[in-house]
Amino acid sequence: MKKVHAYLIGSLLITGSVVLSQGCTRDTSSDDDLIGNWKKGDDFERDARSEAISFTIGDYAYAGTGAGSSNSERFKDIMEYNLARRYWTQKADLPGAARSSAVAFSIGNKGYVGTGYSGSARLTDFWEYDQAANQWTQKTAFAGTARYDAVAFVLNGKAYVGCGNDGNYLKDLWQFDPSGNGGQGSWEQKASVGGSKRSAAMAFVVNNTAYICGGNNNGETQTDLWAYNETENQWTKKNDIYNATDDSFDDDYGTIARQNGVTFVIDNFVYLATGESGTGAINSTTWRYDPSSDRWAEKTAFEGTGRTGAIAFTLQNRGFVGTGRSGSLLMDNIFEFLPNDEQVDND
After folding, report:
1. What structural domains and CATH numbers belong to the chain?
2. What is the Cα–Cα distance from 279 to 166, expressed in whole angstroms?
3. pTM of the model as a whole
């Protein structure tokens, strides 16, 4: 099954909580020493699925598309989540082909969905969602090759889409300007992502800097982290996300690297959860990244059924993770992560 990494960025893209010290790194094999609690949220009120998309506009989250129980089943439905009222409402379907493994993001009060895999073809079409009108408008197609498993992020009112798989692994990067081409949107190629080509990577934005980590290249999970400076159009390598040095800070980094995971941002900290290794093994560990120190600290592992191809979003300083798959089992549940709470079973 094709995979997606759909990111909530720029709304994201995907804030609250109290700052924790670096001293919460685990030194045993038990979650007992870790901080953070995963709490059951409000189920996604459509079919269970994996490789879906999500984005946020204001106080609302949107999720949809994705892959179903058969190799050919794809969705094009879009649901809106109202956190205040705690329910999902169906909105206008995404036009064009039903798809999985697409990218999504928001810029201002508009949402965008594009690329992906229809079950038989890779895609380049792009669509803009008008929240007020509940209406989709087709925009200029993605200028790179048709692909799935790409990443996306937003900086200063412009979106960036890159990496993924078009039959080969990719590392190119394209900037989308929604005001270009008479309002239809325009694309411009930018500096390729550092390191190896990759698909099903994870992207996030903190303090106006974008980051890409992990992903899959030729069956191997990537173990690097790169930061993008939009002004200089340049990528800078950060500390690797495994035990790569003789220093002690990365001694316990053995479970950070993954593909097809999710990220969300709370109070300028990034949380990385779910996903899988290159061998297909599910990774349920949760890690917090502090961009100011370029350090990771382990948090309480994801407490739902382990999964890959999930979605994540942040609303009102609260981070949520849901849907996804474990083997042939598809998920429709949602969990909220409370990063500073003690872990509580079955809450």
Report:
1. 22-338 (2.120.10.80)
2. 21
3. 0.91
